[in-house]
């Protein structure tokens, strides 16, 4: 299914294959030889999503751009089932395994491997050919790759990256943080009310 969002329509190369149950919304460009499988969602929430050539987006993956952070994915990239990419830049020949999470402002270099259920945090930079092991967490610039049992170290690094400030423009110490966050974000997402389904 394809949707016009904020006046922008998807641009899909004629050689790309999009499953009937995939959702492509707004300013999304999909290059030659790409495959977008069932249940995948590519949504441009104010910024563009651009896929190079021969990108495979597997079942139920989510790729979301924001007005602050677009998504750019190079060529010959595999995005595994149930992976989530939000506002990140992915270079060529990258493997993102099942359940991977890549957050806003992250940059992943060429030929990196982010393995099953691993996380690449906000504004984290992975140099080319970096491997993030299964369920490990990459955080910071310069990056530190830490096992999930090292929560206090991860949190110390993550705290300084300021997720609520960077993504939502809100101070972490705001007393009613979640009330403000959900109302502000909800207003932004409500722009989908005017989306128009396109004939494929």
From TrEMBL:
Organism: Microbacterium caowuchunii
Protein name (Swiss-Prot/TrEMBL): Gamma carbonic anhydrase family protein
Lineage, uppermost ranks: Bacteria, Bacillati, Actinomycetota, Actinomycetes, Micrococcales
InterPro entries: Hexapep (IPR001451), Transf_Hexapept/Carb_Anhydrase (IPR050484), Trimer_LpxA-like_sf (IPR011004)
Highest taxon, organism lineage: Bacteria
Signal peptide, first to last residue: none
